[in-house]
């Protein structure tokens, strides 16, 4: 009889332990699900938004270069490079993002011209960069988005 009571007690403790641990797993799973949902709902900019940002910096970069404002030119080209890093990080759902490294060579050349304060080199390499933007747009069937050498400064409230 004593053995029987002991056995029953041991069994109910085991059952209790099993129950509470499966409950623990359930709440953990619910937490993971809710975090996953929050993650999925987190806003992240789309490729088109990154491109619109790049468009502005491309234009500012040009006018900085035209005015020999090399510090601003250096800043603007790095803004473009940061956006390209963001595309690699956040736009993995877009197969086009794999083509971004095609900008590396023109960006390197333009960076070198800015470092040397070389206006002629800047103009040549700015054309090379712009042509490469369009080469990608062509390659991914967005060639209706044609980038060109700007003609007027984009903003009246910033000095170039
Ligand atoms: C890896 C390929 C690729 C490269 C390189 C690239 N683009 Fe794009 N660009 C795209 C794609 C794809 C879109 C369309 C995005 C979308 O779906 O909204 C686009 C769209 C644009 C748009 C249209 C945005 C709008 O809403 O009107 C502009 C402007 C633009 N790109 C500028 C540039 C500039 C400037 C460069 C070079 C500094 C560049 N792009 C380089 C792929 C590229």
How many helices? The count is 5
Q: At the third CATH level, what is the topology name of the domain at 47-139?
A: Four Helix Bundle (Hemerythrin (Met), subunit A)
The count of β-strands is: 0
Q: What structural class do helix, strand and pairing data support? A: mainly alpha
Shape: elongated
Provide the CATH architecture of the domain at 47-139.
Up-down Bundle
Q: Can you walk me through this structure?
A:
- With 160 residues, the chain is mainly α.
- The protein has a domain at 47-139: Four Helix Bundle (Hemerythrin (Met), subunit A).
- It contains 5 helices and no strands.
- The protein has helices at residues 2-41, 47-66, 70-90, 104-115, 119-139.
- Helix 2 (47-66) runs antiparallel to helix 3, helix 3 runs antiparallel to helix 4 and helix 4 packs antiparallel against helix 5 (119-139).
- The structure holds heme C.
- Heme C binds next to helix 2 and helix 5.
Q: Could you give a short description of this structure?
A:
The protein is mostly helical and 160 residues long. It has helices at 2-41, 47-66, 70-90, 104-115, 119-139.
Task: Output the keywords.
Four Helix Bundle (Hemerythrin (Met), subunit A); binds heme C; elongated; 160 residues; single chain; 5 helices; mainly alpha
Topology:
Elements: H1 2-41, H2 47-66, H3 70-90, H4 104-115, H5 119-139
The structure holds heme C.
